[in-house]
Protein: Pectinesterase inhibitor domain-containing protein
Organism: Zizania palustris
Amino acid sequence: MAVGGGLNFMVIIVIASTLQIASRSLAGAGDMVADTCARCSRSNPNVNYTLCVASLSEYPESRVADLHGLALISAKPLLSGLATIASVAKDLRDKTPPVSPARSCLDACMEMFRDAEYDLGSAVAAIEEWRYGDAKTSMSATMDAPVTCEDEFQEQDMAPPPAIKAQSKPLFQQGVISLAIISLL
Ligand SMILES: *[C@@H]1O[C@H](CO)[C@@H](O)[C@H](O)[C@H]1NC(C)=O
């Protein structure tokens, strides 16, 4: 009886300390996203801390990721943002009369977004291969695309379509976050 009680006690100690280790490593992982975003917003005031934490936390793998992993994860919202803005540009283009200045701007934008998707792929490949200088160059090119698209309209004295502008700012903000994380590597 006394031996049984001792064993039970041991089992409880082992379970308790296992749980403690598990909860400590979970808390530690959660802090990694918050810590990284805090470091990013300190090094670059344009980094939106709230958006940084929210967008990285959306991916469950961020809970166990190191800085290198977080840099890769930070590219994901850009990939979906680019797909969205590219499809917005295509929809607008298909509704715009052919051989019009707006149509040629939208054609140019579609090409820019295609290039940006390619640049983003290069940025991810560069992160995976620890070529962080190249990653920064490609990421900068990626996030320039929506700005360059808007410039295309402004150069022709036209206002950029609101649907494009609505997608362009969040995409740029995600790019700022990703670039800041890569810069910490
Ligand atoms: C930062 O991001 C949050 C969440 O997306 C947003 O609500 C807030 O307006 C953003 N702040 C700035 C200054 O853009």
